[in-house]
C-alpha cells in the first residue's frame, strides 16, 4: 500500500497545490490593434470573417509568412511589458447587443495588479517541479486553441468564462466550477474574464499544422484544471512546452443595468463570430521572442512581470506600440451589424 501513498504524494507535488505557489510569468500586453484580420487561419485575407483584438509585436499583419518573417527583426516595438517579446496573441472580440438591435464593442482591461490599455494578460507557466525543464518555442511556431465554428461545448481544455466579482478573482482554479464554456447568464460585478489555455506537449518537428492544433496536444494523466505542464507527454508529442494562457477582462459592467438586457431573460453579450452562447471564443499564438530570451526566463523560473534575465519596458512605453486598422470599418460605435455581418446565433 505504501507505494500508492507515495505515488499520490508525487502526483500532488507534480501538480502543484495552487496557482499561488508556483512560478508563472504573468504580464500585460496592451492593445496593438482591433482589426478584422487573422494571419494564422485566413492568411492574406483583408478582411477575415470576424473581428479580433491583437497584442504584441508591431510586425503583425494579414499575411505574416512564417518562412520569411522574423518577428523580432521586423518589429520596431511590442505592446507587451517584456520587451523581448514580439509574439502576437489574439482572440475574438466581445459585443453587447442592445434592445434596439444595435451592437457595441465591450472594452477590455488588464487583470488585477497589472496596467495597460485593454489587451491581454499573458501567462507562460513552467512545470511546478523545478527539475522538469520546459522547451521554449522555436521561431515560426504557431498554434490555435478553441474553435470559431463551435455550436456546442468544445473539448479544448480551459477555454471558458468567469463571472468576476467586484474585486479579487474568487481564487478558484481557472475554468473550475462555476466558470463555464457558456457566457454568464447574469450581470457580473467585475466584468467577464475569458480564459484560454494552450496544450503543453509538442511533436518536436512541426512549427505549425494544417489545423494549427495537431502539432501540439494535452499530456496524458494531466487533469483538465492543472496549472502548468503536468502529466506525461505522449510519444507522438514528446516535447514539454510552457503552458501559455490568456486572460482577457471584458468590461461588461457598463451594461449591467438589467433594463438594457433582453426582455426574454437571455443575456446580451456575444462574440464577434456572432455566437451568443460562448463556445466560439478562441486564441491564436504566433511565437516571436527574441533569441533565447523565453528559454532563459523559463529556466530562471521567473515569476509575474519581473525577470532580470530578460528585457522589460514600462507599461507607458508598451502602450505607445499600436497599429492602424487595415480593414476600414467602424468597430466602436453603436453598430447595425457585427463587423463581417456575422450571423447572430
Ligand atoms: C506583412 O509584412 C511583410 C513584412 O514586413 C510584408 O512583406 C508583407 O507584404 C505584409 N503583408 C501585408 C498583407 O501587409
Ligand atoms: C440603441 O440603444 C443604445 C443603448 O440603449 C443607445 O445608446 C443607442 O443610441 C440606440 N440606438 C438607436 C439607433 O436607437
Automatic annotation (TrEMBL):
InterPro entries: DUF1996 (IPR018535). It comes from Lasiosphaeris hirsuta. This is DUF1996 domain-containing protein. The lineage of its organism: Eukaryota, Fungi, Dikarya, Ascomycota, Pezizomycotina. Residues 1-18 form the signal peptide. Residues 38-289 form the DUF1996 domain. It comes from the Eukaryota. It holds the Pfam family DUF1996. Keywords: Signal.
Amino acid at each position: 500500500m505504501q507505494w500508492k501513498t507515495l505515488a499520490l504524494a508525487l502526483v500532488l507535488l507534480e501538480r502543484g497545490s495552487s496557482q499561488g505557489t508556483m512560478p508563472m510569468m504573468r504580464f500585460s500586453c496592451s492593445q496593438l490593434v482591433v482589426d478584422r484580420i487573422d494571419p494564422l487561419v485566413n492568411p492574406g485575407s483583408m478582411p477575415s470573417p470576424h473581428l479580433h483584438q491583437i497584442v504584441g509585436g508591431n510586425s503583425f499583419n494579414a499575411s505574416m509568412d512564417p518562412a520569411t518573417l522574423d518577428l523580432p527583426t521586423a518589429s520596431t516595438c511590442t505592446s507587451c511589458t517584456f520587451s523581448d517579446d514580439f509574439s502576437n496573441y489574439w482572440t475574438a472580440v466581445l459585443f453587447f447587443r442592445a434592445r434596439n438591435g444595435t451592437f457595441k464593442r465591450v472594452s477590455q482591461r488588464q487583470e488585477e495588479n497589472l496596467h495597460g490599455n485593454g489587451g491581454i494578460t499573458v501567462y507562460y507557466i513552467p512545470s511546478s517541479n523545478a527539475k522538469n525543464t520546459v522547451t521554449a518555442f522555436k521561431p515560426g511556431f504557431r498554434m490555435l486553441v478553441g474553435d470559431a465554428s463551435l455550436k456546442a461545448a468544445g473539448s479544448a481544455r480551459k477555454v471558458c468564462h468567469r463571472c468576476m466579482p467586484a474585486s479579487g478573482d474568487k481564487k478558484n482554479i481557472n475554468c473550475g466550477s462555476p466558470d463555464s464554456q457558456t457566457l454568464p447568464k447574469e450581470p457580473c460585478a467585475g466584468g467577464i474574464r475569458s480564459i484560454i489555455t494552450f496544450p503543453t506537449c509538442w511533436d518536436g518537428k512541426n512549427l505549425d499544422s494544417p489545423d494549427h492544433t495537431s502539432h501540439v496536444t494535452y499530456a496524458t494523466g494531466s487533469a483538465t484544471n492543472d496549472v502548468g505542464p503536468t502529466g506525461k507527454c505522449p510519444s507522438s508529442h514528446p516535447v514539454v512546452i510552457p503552458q501559455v494562457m490568456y486572460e482577457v477582462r471584458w468590461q461588461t459592467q457598463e451594461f449591467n443595468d438589467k433594463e438594457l438586457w433582453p426582455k426574454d431573460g437571455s443575456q446580451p453579450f456575444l462574440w464577434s463570430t456572432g455566437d451568443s452562447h460562448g463556445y466560439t471564443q478562441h486564441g491564436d499564438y504566433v511565437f516571436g521572442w527574441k533569441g533565447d530570451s523565453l528559454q532563459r526566463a523559463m529556466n530562471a523560473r521567473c515569476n509575474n512581470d519581473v525577470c532580470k534575465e530578460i528585457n522589460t519596458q514600462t507599461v507607458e512605453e508598451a502602450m505607445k506600440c499600436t497599429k492602424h486598422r487595415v480593414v476600414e470599418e467602424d468597430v466602436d460605435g453603436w453598430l447595425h451589424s457585427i463587423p463581417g455581418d456575422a450571423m447572430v446565433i
